[in-house]
Automatic annotation (TrEMBL), chains A, B:
Domain called Endonuclease NucS C-terminal: residue spans: 126-232
Official protein name in the record: Endonuclease NucS
Keyword annotations of the record: Cytoplasm, DNA-binding, Endonuclease, Hydrolase, Nuclease
EC number: 3.1.-.-
Function, as annotated: Cleaves both 3' and 5' ssDNA extremities of branched DNA structures.
Record bears the keyword Cytoplasm: yes
Cellular compartments annotated: Cytoplasm
One Gene Ontology cellular component annotation held by this UniProt entry: cytoplasm
Domain Endonuclease NucS N-terminal PH-like: 29-117
Broad class of enzyme this protein falls into: hydrolase
InterPro entries reported for this sequence: Endonuclease_NucS, NucS_C, NucS_N, NucS_N_sf, tRNA_endonuc-like_dom_sf
GO MF entry, a single one: single-stranded DNA endodeoxyribonuclease activity
DNA sequence: AAATATATATCGCTA
DNA sequence: TAGCGATGTATATTT
């Protein structure tokens, strides 16, 4: 792969050439530009100083002064067109009917950056929580026996499906974070679906496993007769 | 605000000084670094070439070759500590019990970038959809009369609350995108809650407004007796 | 390609 | 501050 390269105060044509010669390098642009997105919604931004990053996978990110999120972007897979019109650098990204246009009134800096890809090994996810429950099923309730993970139902796959000490079928829904009403509804859908899958009169117990639960979710769980088991990943 | 500044091949100490002198400017670093995140989860990445952006609001973003999402990050509000140890630049970000450490084995480039903030005017949102329905309530059903928006219930605020041509109470839930089972459950919660708020025997009709629905969601709606109105923002 | 659920989601609003 | 829902959510997995 080519080396990193940096251009200070390039002309629009030089900036355009840099973008075209990027190969597998990411391109970071700094300058003043106007942004216009159209696709899932429509958004325009007046000229302002931004940091624009184009990755070799087509990702296009325009960052303003604040926030984790780019102020405008295109997801991976976009194709970029570069041109110079009226002595201005213009980027036109397109992907799946979405477009993002950047009109640079001034380009202050262009960097060509070889970046390494890397999958971060993340732990503390819902998968880890599941491993923990499977390793010690008594965490759910004394004598709980897991029978399957990702068991399919009409409502979708259930995190853990198993049996109580007294033979009652149990649906376990795992959440790594404090849960709200959505998780209670989700568990409810699974329990309903499983009860039908089995038999009209089959008793199915629902268990929500999470670090904690909001009041409203606790209420929903109680109403539906489901249990909550506090457990932190 | 200070001007933009660019440093090529800075020493670790020079890079650290640049970060400390950033004032209200964002700092973009390019080089090889090892990343370690700990907080809501745990993640480590071996040394690799990355693009790291630190914004004046504390946001810290580390980008690898692919993807919209940073490979590691801290949300706005983080505080950054900069140091040089073993002749290496080290960043330590901290926020609300979360930490992100960047150990640079080599810094190739540092930029100090004044960025403008900007709120993008976005159209095509759920708010726009609501305006459209309020302007032409017949879109819901012939003779529908909106009575309130964001009407509070025990389950949360309802998008639009109103009355049918025949006086039946109606709960309208708006979605700007194709909806799945979650939206059907949400509408169901609202309808249940409103029926209780009013009277035990009050009939409440649920209407989901969205461009389209998935099969499973359609089933859930049908089971609960709710209606679907196709409408694209 | 479509559907479904997760995420270190982030962001904005409201009580 | 916590809860709650929207987001141009992105991303992974499975069908």
């Amino acid at each position: 792969m080519s080396d990193a390269a940096f251009l200070a105060d390039p002309s629009p044509a030089e900036a355009a050439d840099a973008l075209r010669d990027a190969d597998d390098r990411a391109v970071a642009l700094y300058g003043a530009c106007e942004l216009a997105y159209d696709g899932r919604a429509t958004s325009t931004l007046p000229v302002g100083r931004r940091h624009v990053l184009h990755k070799p996978d087509g990702t296009l990110l325009a960052h303003a002064a604040t926030g984790h999120q780019p102020v405008n972007w295109l997801a991976p897979g976009a194709t970029l067109s570069v041109s110079v019109e009226d002595d201005e650098l213009r980027l036109h990204g397109e992907r799946d009917g979405e477009t993002l246009d950047c009109r640079f009134t001034h380009v202050s800096h262009v960097s060509l950056l070889p970046l390494d890809d890397a999958d971060a090994e993340v732990s503390g996810t819902e998968d880890d929580l599941r491993e923990r429950v499977l390793a010690d099923p008594d965490l759910i309730s004394e004598g709980f026996r897991p029978l399957a993970t990702e068991r399919d139902t009409a409502a979708g796959p259930v995190d853990i499906y198993g049996e109580d000490a007294d033979g009652t079928r149990v649906v376990v829904e795992l959440k790594r974070r404090r849960v709200g009403p959505d998780a209670a509804s989700q568990l409810d859908r699974y329990v309903d679906a499983l009860a039908r899958d089995l038999h009209a009169d089959a008793a199915v117990r629902g268990v929500l496993v999470a670090p904690s639960v909001t009041d409203r979710a606790r209420h929903l769980l109680a109403e539906a007769g489901h249990d909550f088991v506090p457990l932190t990943p």
